[in-house]
Amino acid sequence: MPTPAEQAVPAGAQHGHGPTWDAGTASLLWTDLRARAVHRYAPDDTDHSMQVPQQVSAAKPRTRGGLLLHFDEGVALYDADGERRTWLTFWARDGVRAGETTVDVCGRVWATTVCEHEDGDGWLVRVDPTGAAHVIAGGIAAGNGLAWSPDDTRLHLADSAARRVDVLTVDQVTGDATARDAAFEVDGEPAGMCADADGCLWIAMRDRGEVRRYAPDGRLDRTVPLPSQRPTGCCFGGEDLTDLYITTARDGLAEPGAADGALLVLPGAGSGLRAHSFPG
User: What pTM did the predictor assign?
Assistant: First the structure.
């Protein structure tokens, strides 16, 4: 069994989001969405941050160096020193913010948007390395979680408002996806999530102060309590991808505690999957 969750960074983030382990630099990328900040945390060093011009929900590594960032207005590429920004795709819409982001085995970006009132007008888009964007699914109330299966053929989508995890079957070669099918219902609001090597989903439960592990058939396998009220996302990291890192938020909480807004780590939680990098 894993040890209790610890504070890796007592960051006091307004809305921590989108944790991603960058194996190339042995560090964790994560963002503070509301504070417009991108963080990089090295377990044997400190947490460094970079301010950006708008809300940012995720930062992903690039094979050529630099970062891919998911902003409210679209997806952009930053060079290695963070000085130059190039839009990969731009879709600015009033009342729409950046949601969840993942990169598939072929380097395509999959991203959700979330309407501020979670009224069902968000969408899931696939962005090819060329910048061509394709809307895969619409009518998503709050697409706050994306996770690939170990064989990279199924993309899981967590909708917080619907309290459900759906699944899309994806052709690895073409990037085509089948219709969105319900996988299982969730008791509570699922937020960010990741898959482990066994194909189980680890889901941060919004306002439940816990992270859960669900078996591939939707059976609740494990519940781990956290010292933070509002976990927002999770991913495996560390040298052997066995530690579960969890972002949290403190905005909107009537009485935030000391660990609300912290970056947490759950050592020895399981065996994770390596995240894919954007090829550009």
Answer: 0.96
